[in-house]
Amino acid sequence: MPKLARTIHFDDSDRNIFARPADSGEWAVAGGFEFSNWSDCDLVGKARQAFSNGWLSLEGFGRATLVAVATIEEAEIEALAQRLAGHFVTVYGAPSIDAALPAAHEEITFMQELCADHDPNVLLIVQRELTQAGVRESFRAITPAEAKLDLVAIHGHID
């Protein structure tokens, strides 16, 4: 089954640091395309935070600091590609959804490849920097530690 990533929040910090925060559970892509024409002058305030480490949600087109790998149905992938293509038309001036669909598929395929080797619930972090050659993205995976019960605390003692 294919994998993609969903936005996740452990606290309310994204609501304070992004101009448009994503809701929890929304499918997401890296979304670095938004910053392709940016310069240092654009990197101020909440826009800087979105640039530095924000994932782009595919439902509300907000940003989130963390995403978690999850399985996804094939039919959902095509619906997300259509939605992203519509975003390209509305926000970035693509001439039509049909013209934007290959770029939308490319973004989603890249995210699927990023998620493919990770188990569900692995957290992903994106970091971006502006270089002479353009935007450089790097990604890091964080595997949640297994929860361990403190048997002494539960039972009072261990025999």
Question: How do you describe this structure in short?
Answer:
By secondary structure, the chain is of the alpha+beta class. The protein is 36% helix and 24% strand. Strand 3 and strand 4 form a beta hairpin.
Structural write-up:
This protein is an alpha+beta fold and 159 residues long. The protein has one domain (3-155). 36% of the residues lie in helices and 24% in strands. It is built from five helices and seven strands; from the N terminus they run βαβαβββααββα. It has a seven-stranded antiparallel β-sheet. Helix 3 (74-92) packs across helix 4. The protein starts with a strand and ends with a helix. Mean pLDDT is 88; it is low at 146-159.
Estimate what percentage of residues fall within beta strands: 15-25%
Using DSSP, what is the number of strands?
A: 7
Distance between the termini: 44 Å
The number of helices is 5
Give the helices and strands as they follow along the chain: EHEHEEEHHEEH
How many structural domains are formed by the residues?
1
Query: Structural class per helix/strand content?
Result: alpha+beta
Note the topology.
Blueprint (H helix, E strand, L loop, with lengths): L2 E6 L4 H5 L9 E3 L15 H9 L1 E3 L5 E2 L1 E6 L2 H19 L4 H20 L6 E9 L2 E9 L8 H5 L4
Antiparallel strand pairs: 1-2, 1-5, 2-3, 3-4, 5-6, 6-7
